[in-house]
Design a protein that fits this description.
This protein is an alpha/beta fold. The protein has ten helices and twelve strands. The chain has one domain: Glycoside hydrolase/deacetylase (TIM Barrel), CATH 3.20.20. 39% of the residues lie in helices and 13% in strands. The chain has a five-stranded parallel beta sheet with strand order 9-7-6-3-12. Bound molecules: zinc ion (ZN). Zinc ion binds next to loops.
Length: 269
């Protein structure tokens, strides 16, 4: 099994089809007019990533620098309060998160975010923490020849000593919720919260369903019943006054290696 440490390594396993699709997308994005991004009056943008591999550190830093020029970094709690109160004209914020709990958060991400004083929620699937599973390649990259390292509880504990960082739940097993029964979903949502709170001695307040797939009736109800304060989706868009439901937070998925033209392109939506 190959252990993934660089994006270059991961790219090798990309299908020809998705390779070509990415090239076309990149040409389209670089040539599209993204001026609209600069003319928006108020927003909270929730960018999220999965990984910052060793060969993505430089471009990830550029992305954070870019955001700092166009808004303030705020925590999930502050973002939720602002959405409830209503944004004022020219209020521009970024609220960051990471899904999946890969080890490179500890190795490559937290130092950069500390330098920019950028709060972040790390959504973790608890059964993968401490590298307790040997099917990470299959679950996260759809390829059983790969594996990736995860944070351990000691890393998480150390990260959580910084006030600007929080841990949220990304379920226990990272299974697709719409394929699970009510009781299985209840377990994924409740048990992950308990595990995080016990191991880290913190409140686990925020939830992000695996792959952003969930039932708006059943699972959203469970997330509210189990006292989470927010649910983060993978639907692209910004949060603004006319769309301010903290249980349907829109987030922009980013690859840390992307050039700034991608950010301007997506953030204008
Ligand atoms: Zn995930």
């Amino acid at each position: 099994m190959e252990n993934i440490n660089t994006y270059k390594q991961l790219k090798k396993y990309e299908s020809k089809y998705s390779n070509i699709r990415n090239i076309i997308k990149s040409i389209f994005i670089k040539n599209s007019n993204s001026e609209k991004f600069f003319h928006q009056s108020e927003y909270i943008i929730f960018p999220f990533w999965h990984h910052v591999f060793d060969d993505e550190i430089e471009s990830f830093t550029s992305q954070i620098k870019f955001m700092k020029n166009y808004g303030d970094f705020i925590s999930y709690d502050d973002a939720i309060n602002l959405l409830k109160m209503g944004l004022k004209t020219n209020d521009k914020y970024f609220c960051l998160s990471f899904d999946d709990g890969f080890k490179n958060i500890y190795e490559n991400v937290t130092d950069i975010l500390l330098k920019f004083n950028a709060p972040c929620v790390f959504f973790i699937p608890t059964s993968f923490i401490d590298n307790r599973r040997d099917d990470s390649g299959q679950v996260f990259f759809n390829n059983n020849k790969l594996k990736i390292n995860f944070l351990n509880w000691k890393d998480c504990k150390q990260i959580s000593t910084n006030q600007i960082f929080e841990f949220g739940s990304h379920s226990v097993n990272h299974k697709i919720f719409t394929k699970l029964s009510h009781d299985e979903c209840y377990f994924e949502i409740e048990e992950s919260k308990k595990i995080i709170e016990t191991n880290l001695d913190i409140k686990c307040k925020h939830f992000a369903p695996p792959v952003g797939i969930f039932s708006q009736e059943r699972d959203l109800d469970l997330v509210k019943k189990l006292k989470y304060k927010s649910l983060s989706t993978t639907v692209r868009g910004k949060m603004e006054n006319k769309f301010s439901d903290e249980y349907l937070i829109k987030r922009h998925h980013l690859l840390a290696g992307w050039e700034i033209s991608y950010l301007k392109y997506f953030f204008k939506k």
